[in-house]
Amino acid sequence: MGGRHLRLLVADDQAVVRMGFTAMLDSQPDMTVIGTAEDGQQAVRIARELRPDVVLMDIRMPVLDGIEATRQLGLDERPPSVLVLTTFDLDDYVYDALRAGASGFLLKDATPAEILAAVRAVGGGEALLAPSVTRRLIAEFAARKRLIPPPELDRLTAREREVLLLVAAGLTNAEIAGRLCLAEQTVKSHVSSVLFKLELRDRVQAVILAYESGLVVAGES
Length: 221
Known about the structure:
Layout: E1 6-11, H1 15-26, E2 31-37, H2 40-50, E3 54-58, H3 66-74, E4 81-86, H4 92-100, E5 104-107, H5 112-123, H6 131-142, H7 158-168, H8 173-180, H9 184-197, H10 203-212
Parallel strand pairs: 1-2, 1-3, 3-4, 4-5
Helix pairs in contact: 2-3, 3-4, 6-10, 7-9, 7-10, 8-9
């Protein structure tokens, strides 16, 4: 993290959940909860007003649900990272939230250490938390929604396509560098190029596209 101080927004329709998360996050020296919201519409308004780094977004909220709130925030020029809160890991809503632009999801019964690690990871620009669970979720739901491969895939070089496949397999830049015998900085450049050419926001979006387009098939190595 390099000492970055994270500004957070907690959006949940249950007051006790908001209070619990706020107390836990505010107790950390590198985090401050700058606002809370009790529905998705309020979350979007407050996020646009206060510009948090990370929004902890409950999926099921009144007025506007967390999926649509995430989608609306993703349209902003500098959107916050969104960490979706849910009670179920394999869930259509979670998948839709990831497609809408969430950087990852978190189970509400996660331990405080897991929650803090997730917030720091997303705040640091990382995505695809709990890779095994996230990839299982994406694979399961993408299989039902298989699309025709987007023409943008043809813009990728052979090396970029190779990097995309390894990102979809859940490998970090360092692991991809080791696998392909490249410098980590070179891999980082390839990943950035893949995201730019495919007009994707982050690695989560890249994994979803890889599965939905049929480039990666669940169960294949």
